[in-house]
């Protein structure tokens, strides 16, 4: 009796080329070179060592997997149900990695407590950040010692200032911005032990000068600021 060979279906995945790669006509380095895959190109393939790849222009071939890095699908920009949206890509906004008022007398010797909330990316790069509401960037700068690339964003509707710290690139310039617009990429500039967004919610229209003078003790911190995570999620 002749047994029919079962056809295997492999899950298609996305990979990013981390170097220029030779595209071959079949498996193995001895097969004919039919093209190349430039560094940075996104291709679709399976999880195995030699990959049957499809390039963005539709061309098909095979290449070694050594310089292919898996690419995760990025969720779309959050849909705003109201005048508010998540300040970081929604899948990273589910749970903060460091909460408001967490005890920390090493990094915060005055207040001995964490003045904001942190949203980590688990090492993932290219995680976008968003303006959480309609408002105005009232301060935008770079502090190499502590805050990194940062900005203070005032939302008049609620009379609150949201401070975004450690952006990967330069912070947005002063001016008016709409809810849901991208305002940067999560980074680790300044004093940061990993890629994340540090977000603070200060009462009133405040800048870094105000922040420095207000955060003199735990009690003063609790009077001047509040939990940004709770504040925003209550309005989504």
Give the class-level CATH name of the largest domain: Mainly Beta
How does CATH name the architecture of the largest domain? Distorted Sandwich
Number of helices: 3
Element string (H = helix, E = strand): EEEEEEEEEEEEEEEHHEH
Mean pLDDT score, rounded?
Answer: 87
The total of beta strands comes to 16
Beta content? 25-35%
CATH fold-level label of the largest domain: Glucose Permease (Domain IIA)
Point out poorly predicted stretches. 1-9
Outline:
This protein is mainly β and 236 residues long. The protein has 2 domains: 13-71, SH3 Domains (SH3 type barrels, Roll); 90-233, Glucose Permease (Domain IIA), CATH 2.70.70.
Describe the structure.
With 236 residues, the protein is mainly beta. It has 2 domains: 13-71, SH3 Domains (SH3 type barrels, Roll); 90-233, Glucose Permease (Domain IIA). 8% of the residues lie in helices and 34% in strands. The chain has 3 helices and 16 strands. It has helices at 208-214, 218-224, 228-233, and strands at residues 13-17, 21-24, 33-37, 42-45, 50-54, 60-64, 68-71, 117-120, 128-130, 135-143, 148-155, 160-167, 175-177, 182-185, 196-203, 225-226.
Secondary-structure map:
Layout: E1 13-17, E2 21-24, E3 33-37, E4 42-45, E5 50-54, E6 60-64, E7 68-71, E8 117-120, E9 128-130, E10 135-143, E11 148-155, E12 160-167, E13 175-177, E14 182-185, E15 196-203, H1 208-214, H2 218-224, E16 225-226, H3 228-233
Antiparallel strand pairs: 1-4, 1-7, 2-3, 5-6, 8-15, 9-14, 10-11, 10-13, 11-12, 12-15, 15-16
């Amino acid at each position: 009796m002749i047994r029919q060979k079962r056809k295997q279906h492999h899950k298609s995945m996305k990979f990013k080329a981390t170097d220029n790669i030779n595209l071959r006509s079949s498996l193995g380095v001895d097969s004919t070179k039919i093209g190349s895959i430039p560094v940075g190109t996104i291709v679709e393939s399976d999880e195995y060592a030699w990959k049957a790849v499809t390039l963005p222009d539709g061309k098909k071939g095979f290449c070694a997997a050594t310089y292919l890095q898996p690419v995760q699908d990025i969720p779309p920009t959050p849909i705003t149900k109201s005048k508010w949206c998540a300040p970081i890509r929604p899948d990273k906004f589910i749970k903060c990695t460091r909460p408001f008022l967490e005890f920390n007398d090493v990094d915060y010797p005055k207040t001995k407590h964490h003045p904001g909330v942190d949203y980590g990316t688990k090492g993932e790069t290219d995680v976008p950040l968003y303006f959480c509401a309609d408002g105005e960037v009232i301060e935008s700068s770079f502090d190499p010692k502590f805050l990194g690339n940062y900005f203070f964003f005032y939302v008049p509707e609620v009379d609150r200032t949201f401070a975004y710290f450690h952006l990967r690139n330069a912070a947005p310039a002063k001016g008016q911005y709409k809810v849901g617009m991208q305002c940067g990429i999560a980074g680790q500039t300044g004093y940061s032990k990993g890629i994340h967004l540090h977000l603070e919610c200060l009462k009133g229209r405040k800048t870094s000068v105000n922040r420095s003078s207000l955060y003199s003790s735990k009690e003063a911190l609790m009077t001047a600021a509040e939990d940004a995570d709770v504040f925003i999620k209550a309005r989504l």
